[in-house]
Prior knowledge:
This protein has 277 residues and is α/β, with parallel strands linked by helices. The chain has ten helices and twelve strands. Strands 3-2-1-12-8-7-6-5-4 form a nine-stranded parallel beta sheet, covered by helices on one side. Strands 9-11-10 form a three-stranded antiparallel beta sheet, with no helix packed on it. Helix content is 44%, strand content 16%. The radius of gyration is 18 Å and the shape is globular.
Amino acid sequence: MKLSVMLFPFHGLISNGSLAPATLVEEMTQAGITAIEPMLSNLDGAPEPWQEVLRLAKAAGMTWSCLDIGANLIGTSEEDRAAALETVKRGLALCAEWDCPVALIPGTRPSEGMSNEEGRKLYSAGLRKCADMAKEYGIIATIEDFGVYPAFACRSDHVLEVVTGAGPDVKVTYDNGNFLLSDETAMHALAATRDLTVHVHIKDFKIDPTGEAPLKGLSNKRWIGAEIGGGEGEVAEVVASLKHSGYDGWLSLEVNAPPVEMMRQGAEFVQQAWAKA
Length: 277
């Protein structure tokens, strides 16, 4: 098993100086994490401390599992779409610099007045261009089931519609938790997307008992983050299924606050689930 961690949950602590880069890297090392998944916008937002994290992680023998390149490939105009492609191009160059094999391109949504169906076609067209650029670097372009817009490209059939429309060079980053926002179980979605999955996010959600959380799924359920294995994301089942299917890519933890403690907990849970499978 290859264990990674998404870095964006640590951005606030790193950027305000309350978490030292050396401390974060030491915590990752002790948790058995051997790769990192940075976010381009975080690197732009606080370049000095994040560059130190990257330097120390490399010195500790860590690689990059994936780079998250946020870009809205639809926008409201051709100018927006061209600007988004420039952002992707810049992110892919960074992937190449750090020998990162996978780029995740989240953030696309339909423009106002556009149907989800029309939006998914434009999404595919933009991803096809991204994949062509990525191939020049030997990088795989992916999308995830993006839960922020659960009716757009979050459910597995919608994800597959977009990826299939984009062509064979676009693959899937499978996120076990986000599917819940589209009223789909993680295991059902894994069966549907497994053949195209090249990267995996592991997180967990549970229903908010107060009904007031801002994160809302298709059926109006309100969701809050949970410790990994403590919610409805079927983490142990997903990990076991990936192992049995021969998955040899990265499992990248996406943790809630407090992120250092949740990273330790999540790493231990996933490692144990893999060992027991």
